[in-house]
């Protein structure tokens, strides 16, 4: 059974990280810390789900880039899911969409990892 | 429908413009917020980095005493707490003269600074200045998109840097103000300490003239304080009463010691000299500007009696200053509860009898009542730090005190 602890859910070697609305505040740094902890524990397949994120602002973009860099350093895979249209556009504007594959739903993202 | 020109702008450009406008609005909001300074600066850095999609960045502060820049906050650069770069005054003038952001390769950037910033992957850097005062630097690395920084980007970076500079400047002013405030506070505390020590030393010197009244001024001061608190006076007024108590007998420094310590009845001349001490005290203290009003008059009139038979001005009832009427009670209380050259101390019961017999003639009942109430509270253990009862050479229990207080008018 999938385990959701605070803002992430572990599914075998994959983890879904829930951005919620923390991402728009400096407190969102904690998501980076959670991600750090997961990578240290050998998790390399991470989905960030934005279903509950109304709008990603510049602070959010900065945090997402930080997470992306950390996953890259560990040669992991980061996928995004559940982005609202406005947030999808922001990912396009700042170039995140070129570096991180974006899926419509969390389920699709989990299925989107290479075998 | 009015054409406002948006249709002429391609959608991605418009979206980018709105994203940037939103970033500026949020930056202004964060800077104006009253939060913790480091958190505000950190949010600012994240906003700038998010706007340009940079993965590394830092905000540095210029230290005028050490002529170096130090990191306030950074992101994506690991631990930079020990990162500091010497920054000479000339270099500072050069960079302030640039009046805007620059590429890391710009010749305007001092070589030593450039070398260090290149090490941390900086791509563009902007001085943080307010009215030609150099406050620090902000730097970010390449964009995630790998695009060059356009002239528009640099202009936006400059505007954001100006916002952040204002925040640093306000914080710097606040720090200077706090520094001055703390300096003045220490100075004030030192002066206060000297002041209180001097007043205390005076009180000891006054009491040293009289072998029998050792500690009298300190006790009167403590009793005045307890009474003032019981009467609900303000903290400032309580402090005034404490000081007045310490100095109430200052006029005795001018009285012959043999008169003060004489065990037999005084002659008329001696009595006149002894009775002059409130006026002498008043004259001594008239030269001093106290932060509390009425100290001098309290000292002058602390031997007045409510029926007008006291000295030196033979004032009656409300004509006697309020503080002087308070002091008359506590001064008499201490005189009665301590040994004198001409008689041994009175018991608490005898003191209560004296108070009762002289109510309305010597003592103001409106003030005696709260004084007795303060004593009762101390005896019953209601007061955390008693300041009257510990000086009495007699153990009092609440039942006997209540019995003795029964005879006083409610």
Spell out the blueprint of helices and strands.
The complex is a heterodimer of chains A (115) and B (410).
Chain A: E1 3-5, E2 8-11, E3 14-18, H1 29-40, E4 45-49, H2 58-73, E5 77-81, H3 85-94, H4 96-99, E6 102-103, H5 106-111
Parallel strand pairs in A: 3-4, 4-5, 5-6
Antiparallel strand pairs in A: 1-2, 2-3
Helix pairs in contact in A: 1-2
Chain B: H1 11-32, H2 37-52, E1 57-63, E2 68-75, E3 84-86, H3 89-98, E4 102-103, H4 111-119, E5 124-130, E6 133-140, H5 151-208, H6 216-230, H7 235-247, H8 257-260, H9 268-275, H10 277-286, H11 295-300, H12 322-337, H13 348-357, H14 365-379, H15 398-405
Antiparallel strand pairs in B: 1-2, 1-6, 2-3, 4-5, 5-6
Helix pairs in contact in B: 1-2, 1-5, 2-5, 6-7, 6-12
Tell me about this structure:
- Chain A has helices at 29-40, 58-73, 85-94, 96-99, 106-111, and strands spanning 3-5, 8-11, 14-18, 45-49, 77-81, 102-103.
- Chain A starts with a strand and ends with a helix.
- Chain A has five helices and six strands.
- Chain B is α+β, with helices and mostly antiparallel strands.
- Chain B has two domains: 6-178, 2-Layer Sandwich (Beta-Lactamase); 185-405, Orthogonal Bundle (Hypothetical protein af1432).
- In chain B, 54% of the residues lie in helices and 9% in strands.
- Chain B has helices at residues 11-32, 37-52, 89-98, 111-119, 151-208, 216-230, 235-247, 257-260, 268-275, 277-286, 295-300, 322-337, 348-357, 365-379, 398-405, and strands spanning 57-63, 68-75, 84-86, 102-103, 124-130, 133-140.
Secondary-structure class of chain A: alpha/beta
Report the mean per-residue pLDDT of chain B as an integer: 88
Q: Just name the CATH architecture of the largest domain in chain B.
A: Orthogonal Bundle
Strand order of the largest sheet of chain A: 1-2-3-4-5-6
Q: Helix count of chain A, per DSSP?
A: 5
Query: What is the percentage of strand-forming residues of chain B?
Result: 5-15%
- The strand count of chain A comes to 6
At the fourth level of CATH, the homologous superfamily of the largest domain in chain B is Hypothetical protein af1432
What is the residue-averaged pLDDT of chain A? Answer: 90
CATH architecture of chain A: 2-Layer Sandwich
Major sheet description of chain A = 6 strands, mixed
């Amino acid at each position: 059974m999938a385990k959701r602890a605070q803002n992430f859910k572990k599914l075998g070697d994959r983890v879904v990280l829930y951005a919620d609305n923390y991402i728009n505040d400096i407190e969102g740094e904690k998501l980076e810390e959670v991600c750090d902890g997961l990578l240290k524990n050998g998790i390399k397949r991470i989905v960030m789900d934005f279903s509950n994120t109304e709008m990603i602002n510049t602070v959010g973009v900065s945090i997402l880039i930080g997470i992306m860099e950390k996953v890259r350093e560990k040669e992991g895979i980061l996928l995004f899911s559940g982005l609202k249209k406005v947030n999808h556009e922001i990912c396009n504007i700042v170039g995140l969409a070129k570096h991180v594959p974006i899926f419509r739903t969390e389920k699709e993202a989990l299925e989107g990892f290479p075998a | 429908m009015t054409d406002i020109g948006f249709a002429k702008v391609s959608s991605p450009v418009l979206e980018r413009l709105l994203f940037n406008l939103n970033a500026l609005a949020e930056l202004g909001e964060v800077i104006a917020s009253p939060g913790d300074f480091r958190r505000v600066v950190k949010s600012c850095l994240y906003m700038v980095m998010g706007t340009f999609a940079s993965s590394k960045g830092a905000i540095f502060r210029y230290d005028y005493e050490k002529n170096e820049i130090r990191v306030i906050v950074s992101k994506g650069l690991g631990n930079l707490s020990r990162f500091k770069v010497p920054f000479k005054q000339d270099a500072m003038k050069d960079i302030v003269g640039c009046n805007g952001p620059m590429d890391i390769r710009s010749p305007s950037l001092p070589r030593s600074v450039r070398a260090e910033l290149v090490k941390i992957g900086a791509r563009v850097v902007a001085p943080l200045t307010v009215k030609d005062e150099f406050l620090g630097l902000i730097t970010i690395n390449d964009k995630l998109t790998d695009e060059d920084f356009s002239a528009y980007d640099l202009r936006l970076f400059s505007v954001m840097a100006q916002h952040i500079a204002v925040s640093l400047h306000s914080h710097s002013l606040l720090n200077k103000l706090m520094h001055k405030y703390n300096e003045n506070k220490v100075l004030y505390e030192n002066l206060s300490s000297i002041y209180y020590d001097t007043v205390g030393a005076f009180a000891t010197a006054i009491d040293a003239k009289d072998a029998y009244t050792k500690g009298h001024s300190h006790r009167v001061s403590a009793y005045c304080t307890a009474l003032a608190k019981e009467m609900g006076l303000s903290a400032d007024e309580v402090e005034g009463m404490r000081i007045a108590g310490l100095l109430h007998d200052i006029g005795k420094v001018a009285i012959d010691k043999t008169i003060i310590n004489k065990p037999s009845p005084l002659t008329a001349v001696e009595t006149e000299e002894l009775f002059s001490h409130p006026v002498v005290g008043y004259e001594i203290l008239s030269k001093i500007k106290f932060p509390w009003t009425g100290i001098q008059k309290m000292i002058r009139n602390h031997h007045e009696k409510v029926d007008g038979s006291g000295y030196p001005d033979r004032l009656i009832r409300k004509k006697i200053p309020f503080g002087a009427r308070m002091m008359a009670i506590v001064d008499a209380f201490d005189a009665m509860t301590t040994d004198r050259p001409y008689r041994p101390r009175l018991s608490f019961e005898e003191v209560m009898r004296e108070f009762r017999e002289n109510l309305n003639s010597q003592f103001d009942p409106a003030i005696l009542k709260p004084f007795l109430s303060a004593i009762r509270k101390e005896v019953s253990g209601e007061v955390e730090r008693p300041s009257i009862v510990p000086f009495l050479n007699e153990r009092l229990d609440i039942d006997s005190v209540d019995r003795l207080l029964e005879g006083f008018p409610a």
